[in-house]
UniProtKB/TrEMBL annotation:
<protein>
    <submittedName>
        <fullName>Macrolide phosphotransferase</fullName>
    </submittedName>
</protein>
<keyword id="KW-0808">Transferase</keyword>
<feature type="domain" description="Aminoglycoside phosphotransferase">
    <location>
        <begin position="23"/>
        <end position="251"/>
    </location>
</feature>
<dbReference type="InterPro" id="IPR051678">
    <property type="entry name" value="AGP_Transferase"/>
</dbReference>
<dbReference type="InterPro" id="IPR002575">
    <property type="entry name" value="Aminoglycoside_PTrfase"/>
</dbReference>
<dbReference type="Pfam" id="PF01636">
    <property type="entry name" value="APH"/>
</dbReference>
<dbReference type="GO" id="GO:0016740">
    <property type="term" value="F:transferase activity"/>
</dbReference>
<dbReference type="InterPro" id="IPR011009">
    <property type="entry name" value="Kinase-like_dom_sf"/>
</dbReference>
Amino acid sequence: MTRESIKNLARKYGLHVQIGEVNESGLDFATAAGVDETGKRWLCRVPLRDDVKAGIHREKQVLQAVRPQLSVEAPDWQIAEEDFIAYPLLSGVPAGTIDAEAGAYAWQLTVDPLSDHFIETLASGLASLHHVSKQNVAGAGINLRTIQDVRTRQLERIGEVKQSFVVSEQLDAKWLCWIHDDKFWPSETTVIHGDMHPGHMIIDDEERVTGFIDWTEVDISDPAIDLVGYYHTFGEVELRRLLQAYEKQGGPLTEGAVPQIQAWAATSPLDIAEFAIRSGEEAYQQMAKEALEGQD
């Protein structure tokens, strides 16, 4: 994907922009910032695979439903076609971006420790998201699910992955124990972002979270899922700190949700395997094989 090809796609839909550096580090979309003739800044997204295109209309509808109910910004798609998306760039920058060479985040915030501004505004944004009306989002094409539906779906995911990969007995037993143990599970589902990590959190120059981007995985499910990326990145101490602030903001999870968040984190081999099956990419096939068989 080149600057010129994105510029041409934008022009095809009436948007005349000068394109900056193209970012293809994401799994689903190539992205690039652009500036139009008036100086307005845009974010352009181009799907990298055909299976991604099928969700574009749904994501646009969901954004229209959730944006008025959030305490933070979310993208306002002005162009949403199967081969091109564009929206006015949100103010601020991602909290972290993946440095492909280093294999780690390049940070735009202080991480040791995380600032109170970051924690409190992230907690507020997540709490507002998890109180978004499920009925509104269901009207945008998301299935209403109960917690029992979510648990059943995890059993189905394991079965589907086993059709393509070998799963170690230890990992299989761990997942089944978690799914069938009532003490892990909340009583209600909520609207979730589904792919919440520092690259999808927009912050200002005082490290306040001002927006959430990339809503491709939005769903109605267990709200603990939206804390998994944070746990993977910052660890348990910072997770407990965030949960304390989140609960004060009225979020439906308490500090007692830590084991559930850790249990969801342990399903990452399923995520890798599902992407490998969906994309057919050999590198992810090997990653999935190693993760599911318990290889280091």
